[in-house]
Amino acid sequence: AVANGGHVTSYGADPYTARLQEVMQGHFGAAAQTYPVFTGTGANVVSLMLLARPWDAVICAETAHLNTDECGAPEKMGGLKLVPIPTPDGKLTPALLDTKAHGYGVEHHAQPRILSITQSTELGSLYTVAELRALIGRAKEHDMVVHVDGTRLGNAAVALGVPMSAMTT
Description:
Blueprint: H1 15-28, H2 40-51, E1 56-61, H3 65-68, H4 73-78, E2 81-85, H5 94-100, E3 111-118, H6 129-141, E4 145-149, H7 153-160
Parallel strand pairs: 1-2, 1-3, 3-4
């Protein structure tokens, strides 16, 4: 209700956006930068487009929100190649990542560049902090960057009893 009162300048030069930046830095550290968008789909597509080169692929769980609930937006709007991996519980593992993180330098293959993790998963499972560290470590071994779909990140933090930054930084 507070944000709906009075006139403010647009394009992020307003007190509400400044406050949002402060809150997010409180959760994720001083280096965090926040760019509000209208939807979660928009947030995922914009962030992935910033991470991807035209020939890159995004590896995700087959049940990931990115693969099942974005109405094809990553592919259509972002030109992104999604590479889904079947999992028994919606969670990726280093071994599962290894099955798709190949083809580097082969000019006819989309290059695995981005690992997208949904925490908590669409199946309700949670990655522990140790599981995330192992998975992210393996992604880095493959010179991949990591995208976290934060749809339910707050819920996961409460369920695990950890700050959100423990799952993202």
